[in-house]
Amino acid sequence: MMDSSFAEIIKGRRSVRRFKDVRVSEDTICEIVDYARYAPSDTNSQTWQFVAVLDPEKIKGLAAAIWQTLHRMAQDAASRGMGKEGRLLLRSFGPYATAFTHAPALIVVLSTPYQSKFRERIFDPLDMVPRQVWDLEGTKSSCLAAQNLMLAAHAMGLATCPMTGPVLLAETELAELLGISVERKINMVISLGYPAESPAMPKRKPVHEILRIVR
Ligand SMILES: Cc1cc2nc3c(=O)[nH]c(=O)nc-3n(C[C@H](O)[C@H](O)[C@H](O)COP(=O)(O)O)c2cc1C
User: pTM (2 decimals)?
Assistant: First the structure.
Protein backbone atom coordinates (compact mmCIF):
# COMPACT_ATOMS: atom_id res chain seq x y z
CA MET A 1 0.00 0.00 0.00
CA MET A 2 1.41 3.39 -1.03
CA ASP A 3 2.19 5.82 1.79
CA SER A 4 -0.45 8.57 1.41
CA SER A 5 1.92 11.53 1.80
CA PHE A 6 4.28 10.10 -0.83
CA ALA A 7 1.28 9.60 -3.14
CA GLU A 8 0.34 13.26 -2.60
CA ILE A 9 3.88 14.38 -3.47
CA ILE A 10 3.83 12.42 -6.72
CA LYS A 11 0.26 13.22 -7.75
CA GLY A 12 0.15 16.78 -6.41
CA ARG A 13 3.24 18.11 -8.21
CA ARG A 14 2.12 20.47 -10.96
CA SER A 15 3.94 22.56 -13.51
CA VAL A 16 3.52 26.07 -12.13
CA ARG A 17 4.17 29.19 -14.20
CA ARG A 18 3.17 31.98 -11.79
CA PHE A 19 5.21 32.54 -8.67
CA LYS A 20 5.03 34.76 -5.60
CA ASP A 21 7.52 37.61 -5.55
CA VAL A 22 9.56 35.84 -2.87
CA ARG A 23 13.19 34.92 -3.36
CA VAL A 24 14.39 31.35 -2.95
CA SER A 25 17.34 31.15 -0.57
CA GLU A 26 20.63 29.55 -1.56
CA ASP A 27 20.21 27.10 1.35
CA THR A 28 16.88 25.98 -0.11
CA ILE A 29 18.46 25.52 -3.55
CA CYS A 30 21.26 23.44 -1.98
CA GLU A 31 18.72 21.31 -0.12
CA ILE A 32 16.70 20.65 -3.27
CA VAL A 33 19.81 19.75 -5.27
CA ASP A 34 20.86 17.48 -2.41
CA TYR A 35 17.73 15.40 -3.09
CA ALA A 36 18.43 15.42 -6.84
CA ARG A 37 21.77 13.68 -6.33
CA TYR A 38 20.11 10.59 -4.82
CA ALA A 39 18.70 9.70 -8.24
CA PRO A 40 20.05 6.56 -9.89
CA SER A 41 22.61 6.87 -12.67
CA ASP A 42 24.27 4.26 -14.88
CA THR A 43 27.18 2.68 -12.98
CA ASN A 44 26.66 5.55 -10.52
CA SER A 45 28.31 7.95 -13.00
CA GLN A 46 26.31 10.97 -11.66
CA THR A 47 26.88 12.88 -14.87
CA TRP A 48 24.32 15.57 -13.95
CA GLN A 49 25.20 19.14 -13.02
CA PHE A 50 23.07 22.15 -12.09
CA VAL A 51 23.38 25.90 -12.53
CA ALA A 52 21.07 27.94 -10.30
CA VAL A 53 20.26 31.43 -11.59
CA LEU A 54 18.90 33.69 -8.84
CA ASP A 55 19.34 37.13 -10.42
CA PRO A 56 15.93 38.28 -11.79
CA GLU A 57 17.62 40.51 -14.38
CA LYS A 58 19.71 37.58 -15.63
CA ILE A 59 16.57 35.41 -15.85
CA LYS A 60 14.78 38.12 -17.85
CA GLY A 61 17.88 38.42 -20.07
CA LEU A 62 17.66 34.69 -20.87
CA ALA A 63 14.00 35.11 -21.82
CA ALA A 64 14.90 38.09 -24.02
CA ALA A 65 17.49 35.97 -25.85
CA ILE A 66 14.81 33.35 -26.55
CA TRP A 67 12.40 35.99 -27.89
CA GLN A 68 15.16 37.23 -30.21
CA THR A 69 15.52 33.71 -31.60
CA LEU A 70 11.75 33.36 -31.91
CA HIS A 71 11.47 36.62 -33.88
CA ARG A 72 14.37 35.60 -36.12
CA MET A 73 12.70 32.23 -36.79
CA ALA A 74 9.32 33.87 -37.46
CA GLN A 75 10.92 36.29 -39.93
CA ASP A 76 12.70 33.43 -41.63
CA ALA A 77 9.43 31.47 -41.81
CA ALA A 78 7.66 34.49 -43.34
CA SER A 79 10.39 34.88 -45.96
CA ARG A 80 9.79 31.23 -46.93
CA GLY A 81 6.05 31.80 -47.35
CA MET A 82 5.15 30.31 -43.96
CA GLY A 83 3.98 33.48 -42.22
CA LYS A 84 1.08 31.67 -40.54
CA GLU A 85 3.38 29.13 -38.87
CA GLY A 86 5.77 31.95 -37.92
CA ARG A 87 2.96 33.92 -36.24
CA LEU A 88 1.82 30.77 -34.42
CA LEU A 89 5.38 30.21 -33.25
CA LEU A 90 5.44 33.69 -31.69
CA ARG A 91 1.91 33.69 -30.29
CA SER A 92 1.65 30.14 -29.04
CA PHE A 93 5.09 28.59 -28.52
CA GLY A 94 6.75 31.90 -27.49
CA PRO A 95 4.92 32.27 -24.15
CA TYR A 96 5.31 28.49 -23.48
CA ALA A 97 9.08 28.64 -24.06
CA THR A 98 9.53 31.75 -21.91
CA ALA A 99 7.15 30.87 -19.07
CA PHE A 100 10.12 31.14 -16.65
CA THR A 101 10.55 34.91 -17.24
CA HIS A 102 9.18 35.99 -13.83
CA ALA A 103 10.32 32.98 -11.81
CA PRO A 104 12.52 33.94 -8.84
CA ALA A 105 14.90 31.09 -9.61
CA LEU A 106 15.91 29.02 -12.58
CA ILE A 107 17.71 25.71 -12.31
CA VAL A 108 19.56 24.83 -15.49
CA VAL A 109 19.90 21.05 -15.59
CA LEU A 110 23.01 19.89 -17.43
CA SER A 111 24.06 16.48 -18.58
CA THR A 112 27.52 15.35 -19.48
CA PRO A 113 28.37 12.25 -21.53
CA TYR A 114 28.36 8.96 -19.63
CA GLN A 115 31.86 8.04 -18.40
CA SER A 116 32.81 4.73 -16.81
CA LYS A 117 35.40 1.99 -16.68
CA PHE A 118 33.13 -0.03 -18.99
CA ARG A 119 33.30 2.77 -21.53
CA GLU A 120 37.04 3.41 -21.16
CA ARG A 121 38.15 -0.22 -21.09
CA ILE A 122 35.63 -2.01 -23.27
CA PHE A 123 33.23 0.04 -25.35
CA ASP A 124 35.60 2.81 -26.56
CA PRO A 125 38.52 0.49 -27.50
CA LEU A 126 36.10 -1.77 -29.36
CA ASP A 127 34.47 1.32 -30.92
CA MET A 128 31.14 -0.32 -30.15
CA VAL A 129 28.95 2.66 -29.36
CA PRO A 130 28.71 6.01 -31.17
CA ARG A 131 29.33 9.19 -29.17
CA GLN A 132 25.65 10.28 -29.35
CA VAL A 133 24.69 7.20 -27.35
CA TRP A 134 26.95 8.28 -24.48
CA ASP A 135 25.43 11.77 -24.59
CA LEU A 136 21.97 10.22 -24.39
CA GLU A 137 22.99 7.99 -21.47
CA GLY A 138 24.05 11.12 -19.57
CA THR A 139 20.74 12.77 -20.40
CA LYS A 140 18.75 9.82 -19.04
CA SER A 141 20.41 10.09 -15.62
CA SER A 142 20.04 13.87 -15.67
CA CYS A 143 16.27 13.51 -16.27
CA LEU A 144 15.92 11.23 -13.25
CA ALA A 145 17.77 13.77 -11.10
CA ALA A 146 15.49 16.51 -12.43
CA GLN A 147 12.40 14.58 -11.36
CA ASN A 148 13.87 14.07 -7.85
CA LEU A 149 14.55 17.80 -7.72
CA MET A 150 10.98 18.70 -8.70
CA LEU A 151 9.39 16.26 -6.24
CA ALA A 152 11.67 17.52 -3.45
CA ALA A 153 10.76 21.13 -4.25
CA HIS A 154 7.05 20.26 -4.16
CA ALA A 155 7.45 18.44 -0.85
CA MET A 156 9.13 21.59 0.55
CA GLY A 157 6.22 23.86 -0.48
CA LEU A 158 7.85 25.22 -3.63
CA ALA A 159 6.79 24.70 -7.22
CA THR A 160 8.59 24.05 -10.47
CA CYS A 161 8.06 23.89 -14.21
CA PRO A 162 10.40 21.74 -16.32
CA MET A 163 11.05 23.37 -19.67
CA THR A 164 12.80 22.22 -22.82
CA GLY A 165 11.29 24.92 -25.06
CA PRO A 166 14.13 27.34 -24.19
CA VAL A 167 16.70 24.66 -24.99
CA LEU A 168 15.16 23.71 -28.33
CA LEU A 169 15.18 27.35 -29.36
CA ALA A 170 18.34 28.79 -27.89
CA GLU A 171 20.66 26.27 -26.22
CA THR A 172 23.78 27.97 -27.60
CA GLU A 173 22.68 31.44 -26.49
CA LEU A 174 21.72 30.18 -23.00
CA ALA A 175 25.07 28.39 -22.65
CA GLU A 176 26.95 31.55 -23.69
CA LEU A 177 25.01 33.80 -21.33
CA LEU A 178 25.58 31.43 -18.39
CA GLY A 179 29.19 30.49 -19.19
CA ILE A 180 28.37 26.81 -19.73
CA SER A 181 31.08 24.99 -21.66
CA VAL A 182 30.30 23.15 -24.89
CA GLU A 183 30.86 19.62 -23.61
CA ARG A 184 27.96 20.10 -21.20
CA LYS A 185 24.53 19.74 -22.69
CA ILE A 186 21.61 21.77 -21.36
CA ASN A 187 19.03 19.08 -20.72
CA MET A 188 16.23 21.34 -19.51
CA VAL A 189 15.62 24.42 -17.40
CA ILE A 190 13.39 24.27 -14.34
CA SER A 191 11.72 27.39 -13.01
CA LEU A 192 11.46 27.38 -9.24
CA GLY A 193 9.65 29.48 -6.68
CA TYR A 194 6.75 29.70 -4.27
CA PRO A 195 3.52 29.05 -6.21
CA ALA A 196 1.04 31.85 -6.94
CA GLU A 197 -1.38 29.54 -8.74
CA SER A 198 -2.78 26.02 -8.28
CA PRO A 199 -3.35 24.63 -11.76
CA ALA A 200 -5.70 21.68 -12.20
CA MET A 201 -4.03 18.42 -13.12
CA PRO A 202 -3.89 17.92 -16.88
CA LYS A 203 -5.65 14.67 -17.78
CA ARG A 204 -3.57 11.50 -17.52
CA LYS A 205 -3.84 8.47 -19.80
CA PRO A 206 -5.27 5.47 -17.94
CA VAL A 207 -2.91 2.64 -17.00
CA HIS A 208 -4.45 0.20 -19.49
CA GLU A 209 -3.50 2.57 -22.36
CA ILE A 210 0.16 2.75 -21.44
CA LEU A 211 0.87 -0.68 -19.95
CA ARG A 212 1.19 -4.04 -21.64
CA ILE A 213 1.90 -6.96 -19.36
CA VAL A 214 3.77 -9.90 -20.82
CA ARG A 215 2.75 -13.05 -18.93
C1 LIG B 1 10.35 17.35 -21.35
C2 LIG B 1 9.39 18.43 -20.92
C3 LIG B 1 9.44 19.67 -21.53
C4 LIG B 1 8.57 20.69 -21.14
N5 LIG B 1 8.72 21.95 -21.70
C6 LIG B 1 7.92 22.95 -21.26
C7 LIG B 1 8.10 24.27 -21.78
O8 LIG B 1 8.96 24.53 -22.61
N9 LIG B 1 7.29 25.24 -21.31
C10 LIG B 1 6.33 25.00 -20.34
O11 LIG B 1 5.64 25.96 -19.95
N12 LIG B 1 6.14 23.75 -19.85
C13 LIG B 1 6.90 22.72 -20.27
N14 LIG B 1 6.73 21.46 -19.75
C15 LIG B 1 5.68 21.21 -18.76
C16 LIG B 1 4.52 20.42 -19.36
O17 LIG B 1 3.72 21.28 -20.12
C18 LIG B 1 3.73 19.76 -18.21
O19 LIG B 1 4.59 18.87 -17.52
C20 LIG B 1 2.53 18.97 -18.71
O21 LIG B 1 1.58 19.83 -19.30
C22 LIG B 1 1.85 18.19 -17.59
O23 LIG B 1 1.48 19.04 -16.51
P24 LIG B 1 2.00 18.80 -15.02
O25 LIG B 1 3.50 18.91 -15.03
O26 LIG B 1 1.37 19.87 -14.19
O27 LIG B 1 1.57 17.42 -14.59
C28 LIG B 1 7.59 20.44 -20.13
C29 LIG B 1 7.56 19.18 -19.53
C30 LIG B 1 8.46 18.21 -19.90
C31 LIG B 1 8.42 16.88 -19.19
Answer: 0.96
